[in-house]
Fold this protein.
Amino acid sequence: MIKFENITKIYSPEAIALKDVSFEIEKKEFISIVGKSGAGKTTLLKLFLASEKPTQGRILFNNQDICDITPEDICQHRKKIGAVFQDYKLLDSKTAYENVVYIMEVLGKSDEEILRDVPKVLDIVGLTERSHHYPNELSAGERQRTAIARALIHRPEVILADEPTGNLDPYNASDIIHLLLKINEMGTTIILATHNKEIVNSLGKRVVTLDQGKLVRDEKKGRFIL
Amino acid sequence: MITSLKRIFKLGWKSLSYDWGVTATTIFVLVLTVSLITSIFLLKGVSQFLIQKIEEKIDISVYFKDDIVENKIMEVRDELLDISDAENIQYISKDQALQDFTERHEQEEVLMQSLAEVGVNPFLASINIKATDPTEYGQIAQFLETGDFGDSIQKVDYYEKKPVIERIFNLADSFKRVGIGLSILLVFFSFLVVLNTTRLAIYNLREEIQVQRLVGASNWFIRGPFLVQGMIAGAVSALIAFVIFISGCWLLSPNVSNLFSDLNVWEYFTGNLLSIILIQLGAGIFLGLISSFIAIRKHLKV
Ligand SMILES: Nc1ncnc2c1ncn2[C@@H]1O[C@H](COP(=O)(O)OP(=O)(O)OP(=O)(O)O)[C@@H](O)[C@H]1O
Ligand SMILES: [Mg+2]
């Protein structure tokens, strides 16, 4: 469903983030991308979201080249993706609740759907009580969970989770991972970028390892090896 | 479509109330600009009124030779009525002229004495002409002097008054031109202030705009709320400016009337109420909208 073909991303001569990376992701797959800090995990996800363009190569999503699409199509493309950003990227002028609602509004969901789904998802990530606080009134973990709720709410085809457990305690972290697994079982493709060894090892799913921008390992039932 | 329009309005309204400081600043500069535009409109009215007052004071007189009979003069008057839309053509007989003079100079003994010494009535019968449009005076004077009755006319005092009339014209004209130029300049600069205030407000939200783009919001869905905010801020500013001006005119009107008689600012304001409301509302909303539109443009480029 998703195909990275010979992707190279050069920000500047000193910052070569990805070097000739090629791999394919099947529908309903749960794939972990691991690698040291600076290996290029976030860059890979950015390329897939079309917020950066590759220097070379192309990315196919459902056979459409997303490196070469109109701004109009970029919106449509992003609406199919739920993204948990490493730095959350919440809307600071909106409460946790409104942040999640915003996605539904962007997608043109009805008010009934919003009233029905948003509290449910906030409850799943354990934010019901804090949902009317602004991001700067939330702890890092709570912000992260808001970001997760926002990525799940519209049942996207693909979820990109960039270090979604980075600020969570082990209990919350394993809850979130279980949640991602459950969503994956229901048919959503999950791309998880992380350096959390335990999580990757406990998943027993496919692992792609990046090292200094190069794809060095791609294993079906992979382990976290650096 | 309708739901997203409704949502755009709601989002715009919400973010307006999110940061009161920024909203207040924007409204403040908008009120200043709308007020400036309203002042220009009012000043235009006032100066037109004053110029008109001065122009009304201009007239020319045709003096007839001593031996011309009244019937002949009446003929001339009728012809004048035919050729021009002379607003006010007044016949002043010899006797009338004498009477006017004595009334005016009753207190000045020297004048009265010399008048008595002359013995006869030294004044000439005349027709006094006030045109609706002061540019007509030249034509009228020419018509009188070159016409059939040129012989009966002693003199037309247009040529004595000509320099004054022209000077008043030029003055009014340059006043108008300077006024228009200055107005355009002032409005332009205040628009720049509004634009920059909006730009700063939106610049503060640039990261949010990037996030909105990242989650798939279309450009119109992002831009819409800002346009709504601009419109609301503009309408509110127009309302504030209206309140300021209506109370200002009401309070100042008596003072202005003392300064320039016949100039009733309050009446002018209420007489043009609809135009003023439209100008204020139009200017406020237009400025709010266009400055938001320009300011957001940069952040939506891919
Ligand atoms: N906008 C940018 N401009 C220049 N260089 C960049 C930019 N973004 C990333 N880089 C560089 O590209 C490389 C890969 O960055 P990336 O964010 O993809 O790493 P990462 O694997 O996500 O790391 P981490 O685990 O710390 O999040 C790094 O060396 C980084 O400095
Ligand atoms: Mg990263």
The first strand of chain A starts at residue 2 and ends at 12. The mean pLDDT of chain A is 93. DSSP finds seven helices and ten strands in chain A. The beta strands of chain A are 2-12, 15-25, 30-35, 56-61, 64-65, 81-84, 158-162, 189-194, 206-211, 214-219.
